[in-house]
Amino acid sequence: MEINLKLNAGIDQLNAACKNTMAEAIGIRFTEIGSNFIRAEMPVDHRTHQPYGLLHGGASAALAESVGSVASALLIREDQICVGIELNCNHIRGKREGMVVATAEPLHIGATTHVWDIKIRDEAERLICVSRLTVAVLAKK
Asked: Model confidence over 49-80: pLDDT tens digits?
């Protein structure tokens, strides 16, 4: 599905918007915006580990929801907001250190909902987690 993400929204602007949020706390950094995808990376370290020293599923979920929600934000009008309403994550492979990269691509872009396919991969392009995020598009109050 070809869509038009607001390519004039710069990576620096997206990362600046993460100040004082969970994204900043766990090291999420946006890296690329294409016409039909957005990409962000996250370190696998003490901030994103679970007690066994593996990437925490909740950290993967936070990365997936962050990248999908920002993708929706790049599509909506100024008088709208968008919020995640459902997230499904399948954790495929464990990871102990390094970096993971999430890529969000649209499955459905409607007037009131967006559905994103989000794949999280490691440095070797191995699939770590696959997610689907549904976002509601609401009027700004």
From this structure: 999 999 999 999 999 999 999 999 999 999 99
Give me the domains of the chain, ranges plus CATH numbers: 11-139 (3.10.129.10)
Q: Between β-strands 127-139 and 113-122, what pairing exists: parallel, antiparallel or unpaired?
A: antiparallel
Q: What are the catalytic residues?
A: 65
- What is the Cα Rg of the chain in Å? 14
Which pTM value belongs to this model?
0.94
Give CA–CA dist 107/93, Å, rounded: 24
